[in-house]
Amino acid sequence: MSDETTGAAHDEPHGGGLGTRLNWLRAAVLGANDGVVSTAGLVVGVAGATDARGTLLTAGLAGLLAGSMSMAAGEYVSVSTQRDSEKAALAVERRELREQPEEELDELTRLLTERGLSRDVAREAAEQLTERDALRAHARVELGIDPNELTNPWHAAGASFFAFTAGALLPLLAIVLPPSSVRLYVTVVSVLAALALTGWWSARLGAADPVPAVLRNTGGGALAMAVTHAAGTLLGAAGV
């Protein structure tokens, strides 16, 4: 097997690690974005009904805690399900390698051939990869799973919790710290600036044009705040 092929196989985990890190970073950006939008909609809606700082702080904190816990729980359940599926697939692959090693070697050779290697090179690569770590080789090529880097539900839950909390703190502080005469304007401007930033950053992570992402983000946030503020104003006027 050539040094170039061996080097490519050796470098594969680094690519997978980079992809995992980018996915976590993208999830963190989106979690912060959710925290900004949901909390901003809540406090701006309450601000339409009352300008009492204590009420705004209570509503904002309740929304922050409820949202962050909900995000963490949802992410934990989702990633746990994914991890269970990955472990089940690895168990099947482990059994197949034990019971029919030759068929599995042929399958790995075929998969490598489909990726562009010649039959002879694919066979040699399959044999060397199998000798080194058969389960990892089959899992990565056949299933797209690295047995040494399974998703961690606790990491996902923690990242979602802290990302949402960080995003939610901005509108919460913006609505309670300034004087009542300007707090709504400060909140709207701060939230739209934060949404523009998260929209730009999420687009950059996906190598996409940031302008549509920024417009979608800020437009959705502005609409959410306008609707909730109108509802709060109507409820406040009705004395509810």
Spans where pLDDT lies below 50 across 5 or more residues:
1-16
Question: Which structural category do the helix and sheet elements fall into?
Answer: mainly alpha
Radius of gyration: 25 Å
> What's the overall average pLDDT, rounded?
84
Measured distance between first and last alpha carbons: 76 Å
Total strand segments? 0
Identify the overall geometry: elongated
Question: How many strands, which pairing sense, and closed or not: the largest β-sheet?
Answer: none
Structure overview:
By secondary structure, this protein is an all-alpha fold. It has one domain (3-7, 32-234). The protein is built from 7 helices and no strands. The chain has helices at 3-49, 53-99, 101-114, 119-143, 153-176, 183-205, 210-237. The N and C termini lie far apart (76 Å).
Quick structural summary:
The protein has 240 residues and is mainly alpha-helical. The protein is built from seven helices and no strands. α1 (3-49) runs parallel beside α7 (210-237) and α3 (101-114) crosses α4.
Give the arrangement of secondary structure elements.
Layout lengths: L2 H47 L3 H47 L1 H14 L4 H25 L9 H24 L6 H23 L4 H28 L3
Throw out a few tags for this protein.
87% helix, 7 helices, mainly alpha, elongated, 240 residues
